[in-house]
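Form 12-C: Joint structure prediction
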Amino acid sequence: GAGVSQSPRYKVTKRGQDVALRCDPISGHVSLYWYRQALGQGPEFLTYFNYEAQQDKSGLPNDRFSAERPEGSISTLTIQRTEQRDSAMYRCASSLGGGLAGVSDTQYFGPGTRLTVL
Amino acid sequence: ILNVEQSPQSLHVQEGDSTNFTCSFPSSNFYALHWYRWETAKSPEALFVMTLNGDEKKKGQISATLNTKEGYSYLYIKGSQPEDSATYLCAPAYSGAGSYQLTFGKGTKLSVIP
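Section 2 - Result
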């Protein structure tokens, strides 16, 4: 079956522009996570959705970052007024269960969006 | 900020050698531990999720153990092959109000020399 997909795969933008990154989780997966991954490092948690509810956004670095999952499926991570320090790989992952059940389920990662801010 | 430590940071082994590495994490409020295999330029690939103290999981020649009381997990690779070359990441999760995140370690980078 289809895995987690993300688009675009690569995004180059100029400092100050807004970007929107899309994640399409595995069908039927309740939990959706966004991570940021610097070169050579493990993923760093950004935010978590249980269906359409954003239940944990403690990892969002500042208020320029926001995310939504309005119908409990596709999610969008938006970065406003991008800065060079935002350059990274942005990955999403999904898991079948919700809440703590989702945390103990396998998380399936998407291919990521490589964001470069010039 | 959780302190998740993986050691060694990197290692090189000969093809056919067995190897193991460690993930250490705080034990308080522990809920689950994930192991991932990650090749650069690819997505992290899930290996195991473990929750119970004393858990042992196996997938092919790779196995893992979990000690939740002292906060560590070992990953073992028996008879390493060049295709096992990757970075192995561990990520614990904790129970607690509003806590749904995995905290990843920096990984152990394994290179298997043919």
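Section 3 - Comments
Chain A has a mean pLDDT of 94. The longest strand of chain A covers residues 88-95.
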